[in-house]
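Regression test case RT-17, inverse folding.

Input:
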């Protein structure tokens, strides 16, 4: 597939890297010569300096025979116009745009993006996606990641194995015997920043980050098996009243009436605006690094602090300060990838990467076939994919013990109607089953050969 990526920032470069790694024809456009030079040297893509919404630039990028345009520049207006130019002049079939300004996304202006006005097929709003990602993490205390799949029937959970984890040094094949009624499947282990797609003989060690697939009704028991029995937060402090902080507070107010949220914002006009938008949450004007403000927010009695300012350093330091003053748990937004390996050692419980969440959201729409969901894990070492098995799939009508899956591919769960089945050797996949799989980077093409749903990374 031929794809034009507009924008060579963190999100654009990562999308380009994903697509190029699977052999797609990718052209990246950006008006920054420095970014274009960097991406041209590091990725197997065409790199073009130019203004992404200009017809001449898109023509030079090969828009005449492109299959998709992904517009993720820093300017909403450039992204929207690029999609319109791509549609009107070049008839590009699929158009994806990142739109940050919420004024464009209000329900009363929904007709703006009709096909005969601004013909954008998929609109990505990073701030809303990040706020939802944080809200999901809040639902499972003790987890650093939580991905709902199959209409909420299944969850992929990421947990840290501490020294008191009850199932350390236990071969994974023995977990079924230890917990016969517990529907879980370990699908990935990150050890010393190295990703492992485990076999049945692998064991979990102290300090491992483990991803497992679990039936939603078994999450509490599964977390206890990993030594995590934290109670769900009832008191939360949100540091930062930007769009992410505001959307998170609104999400809490709408869906978690049992939770009390306090929000701290350093900019007075913004704090006043946020206060007007919220009904139950207390908004404080002040610096998140000011101990007096944290005390005023009652940090000592708070279970979780969520740091989502636009400054990574402030988020990290404020999270650590809040924990020092008595907060039990910290969820911290970090944009700079070089900080990610450091923060777990500092005592931060969960890191939220806007780039990774945005990339996952875009990938879900890049995939073709019967793909219902795609989530990238830890800077792309693997992907969790939810797909529907069609009648022509080679997985059908064969016990899983006789299916030769490629190295680095694990089936985590099979959903048939309302039943969630953790894969066993005798399980036979049937048409229309939903299959949750984890595929290591570079294995998507092999997965495509197994699935007639064609998990294609075009």
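Golden output:
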């Amino acid at each position: 597939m031929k794809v034009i990526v507009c924008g060579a920032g963190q999100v654009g470069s990562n999308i380009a890297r994903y697509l190029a790694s699977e052999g797609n024809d990718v052209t990246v456009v950006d008006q920054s010569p420095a970014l274009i030079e960097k991406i041209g040297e590091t990725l197997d893509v065409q790199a073009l300096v130019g203004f992404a919404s200009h017809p001449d630039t898109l023509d030079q990028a090969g828009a005449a025979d492109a299959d998709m345009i992904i517009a993720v520049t820093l300017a909403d207006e450039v992204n929207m116009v690029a999609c319109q130019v791509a549609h009107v002049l070049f008839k590009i079939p699929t158009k994806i745009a990142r739109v940050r300004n919420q004024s464009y996304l209000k329900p009363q202006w929904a007709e703006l993006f009709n096909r005969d006005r601004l013909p954008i097929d998929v609109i990505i709003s990073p701030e809303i996606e990040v706020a939802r990602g944080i809200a999901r993490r809040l639902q499972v205390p003790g987890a650093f990641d939580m991905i709902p799949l199959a209409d909420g029937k299944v969850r992929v959970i990421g947990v840290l194995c501490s020294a008191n984890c009850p199932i350390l040094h236990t071969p994974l094949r023995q977990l079924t015997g230890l917990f016969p009624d517990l529907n879980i499947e370990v699908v990935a282990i990150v050890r010393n920043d190295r990703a492992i797609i485990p076999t049945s003989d692998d064991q979990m060690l102290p300090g491992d980050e483990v991803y497992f697939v679990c039936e939603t009704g078994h999450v509490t028991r599964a977390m206890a098996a990993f030594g995590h029995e934290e109670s769900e937060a009832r008191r939360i402090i949100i540091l930062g009243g930007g769009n992410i902080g505001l959307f998170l507070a609104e999400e809490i107010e709408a869906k978690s009436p049992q939770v009390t949220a306090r929000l701290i914002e350093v900019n007075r006009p913004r704090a006043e605006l946020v206060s007007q938008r919220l009904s139950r949450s207390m908004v404080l004007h002040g610096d998140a690094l000011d101990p007096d403000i944290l005390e005023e927010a009652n940090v000592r009695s708070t279970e979780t602090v969520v740091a989502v300012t636009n400054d990574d350093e402030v988020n990290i330091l404020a999270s650590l300060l809040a924990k020092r003053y008595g907060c039990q748990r910290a969820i911290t937004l970090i944009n700079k990838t070089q900080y990610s390996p450091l923060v777990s050692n500092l005592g931060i419980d969960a890191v939220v990467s806007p780039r990774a969440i945005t990339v996952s959201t875009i990938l879900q729409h890049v995939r073709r076939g019967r793909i219902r969901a795609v989530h990238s894990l830890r800077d792309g070492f693997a992907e969790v994919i939810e797909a529907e098995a069609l009648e022509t799939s080679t997985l059908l009508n064969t016990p899983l013990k006789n299916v030769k899956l490629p190295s680095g591919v694990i089936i985590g769960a099979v959903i048939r109607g309302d039943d969630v089945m953790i894969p066993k050797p005798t399980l036979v996949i049937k048409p229309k089953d939903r299959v949750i799989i984890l595929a290591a980077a570079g294995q998507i093409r092999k997965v495509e050969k197994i699935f007639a749903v064609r998990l294609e990374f075009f």
